[in-house]
Amino acid sequence: MINENWQGINAKGGINVIKDNTFNFNSPEKPATAVNYIPYPGVSHFVGRSEELKLIHEKLYRENNTVAISAVSGMGGIGKTELAVKYAREYGQYYPGGVCWLNTRDANIAQGIIQFVQLQMGLEVRQQDFQGNPLTLIQQVAWCWQNWQPSEGLVLVVLDDVMNLQGFDELIPTNNRFRILLTTRLRDIDANVEEIPLDVLSPEEGLQLLINIIGEKRVNKPSRHSKDERRRNFNDSLENRDTEIASLRRNDGDAQELCKWLGYLPLGIELVGRYIKKKPPHFTLGKMLELLQQQRLEQEAINLQQKGLSTAQRGVLAAFELSWVELSSETQKIAGLLSLFAADIFVWEWVETMTQSLNWDESDVETANEQLYQRHLVQCLEADDLYGYKIHPLIREFLKDKLTADGESKEIKQAFTNTFMEIAQTIPQSPTLEFINSVKTAIPHLTEIAENLTDAVSDENLYWAFTGLALYYNGQGLYGLAEPWYQGCVSALKSRLGENHPDVATSLNNLAQLYDSQVRYEEAEPMYLQALELYKQLLGENHPDVATSLNNLAALYDSQGRYEAAEPLYIQALELYKQMLGENHPSTATSLNNLAALYRSQGRYEAAEPLYIQALELRKQLLGENHPHVAQSLNNLAALYRSQGRYEAAEPLYIQALELRKQLLGENHPHVAQSLNNLASLYRSQGRYEAAEPMCLQALELYKQLLGENHPHVATSLSGLAVLYVSQGRYEAAEPMCLQAFELYKQLLGENHPDVATSLNNLANLYYSQGRYEAAEPLLIEALELYKQLLGENHPNVATSLDNLALLYVSQGRYEAAEPMCLQAFELYKQLLGENHPDVATSLNNLANLYYSQGRYEDAEPMHIQALKICEQSLGVAHPNTMTVRGNYAACLREMSQRKDNYQF
Question: Label partner for 348 (CA 20 to 30 A): which of 196, 778, 819, 901?
Answer without folding.
Answer: 196
